[in-house]
Specification:
With about 230 residues, the chain is an alpha/beta fold. It is built from eleven helices and seven strands.
Length: about 230
């Protein structure tokens, strides 16, 4: 499942992200290393052959019209053909909504009065301009500090004034030091429901392991490194 959330440049990272063997029961726990998901052994056993056949069948090339439709959908969101196909195979739905953490898109500073000032990264501004889909900014108060409702509204207005109104809403994850990962994921799911965004159709653009885990715990359709967004 890890390969759905992170396309790594390191050849072994998919293995590190895999779930414990108890999920599938294919490999005894005493034989599987930490982070193993119980996938097929790397040999020519019957299990490995069956796994490879199933993988090949799932990735059979669909008709040309379907490929072109997926490519257009991916291009509008700044994703790859593999991204949209992975989500479709795994979740059974099309990706439609992007979640961009505010601190990855803007450099935030505070003045002496506590006001928050944002400086947009030029490459992010260009990517937002090319986007043709739903976009939410994810404001994590652990990164910005607490903000009241009026400040958040003013912040969203300033952002949309310089980004053609592309940002649909500012989703705020409150900073609560005792929150568990599951609680943060539950809060994110609640915010998405409030805005009519099916979580299976959402892509979290991020950089950190905490964001990868949040995407998985919240049941999002995909995690994608923000640097790979509109990479092609």
């Amino acid at each position: 499942m890890g390969d759905r959330f992170f396309h790594s440049r390191h050849p072994n990272l998919e293995t590190l992200l895999r779930r414990p063997p108890a999920v599938s029961g294919l490999i005894p726990s005493r034989l599987a290393g930490i982070g193993h998901n119980g996938g097929p052994p790397l040999d020519m056993s019957g299990v490995a052959v069956a796994w490879r056949r199933a993988h090949a069948k799932a990735w059979q090339a669909p008709p040309r019209e379907i490929v072109q439709m997926r490519l257009r959908r991916a291009a509008r969101l700044g994703l790859s053909y593999r991204d949209v196909t992975l989500a479709l195979l795994d979740r059974g739905c099309h990706l439609s909504t992007l979640l961009l953490p505010l601190h990855h898109a803007f450099a935030a500073t505070r003045d002496r009065d506590g006001g928050l000032h944002l400086a947009a990264a030029p490459e992010i501004t260009d990517k937002i301009a090319r986007l043709d889909g739903r976009l939410f900014l994810l404001l994590d108060e652990a990164m910005t500090g607490p903000l009241d409702a009026a400040t958040r509204r003013a912040l969203l207005q300033r952002i949309n004034a310089s980004h053609d109104g592309k940002v649909e809403a500012l989703l705020t994850l409150p900073f609560r030091p005792m929150d568990t990962e599951a609680q943060r994921a539950q809060r994110l799911r609640r915010l998405l429901r409030q805005h009519g965004a099916p979580r299976q159709e959402c892509v979290l653009l991020g950089l950190t392991w905490a964001e990868i885990r949040l995407a998985e715990a919240a049941g999002l359709g995909l995690f994608k490194p923000v640097g790979d967004w509109f990479a092609g």
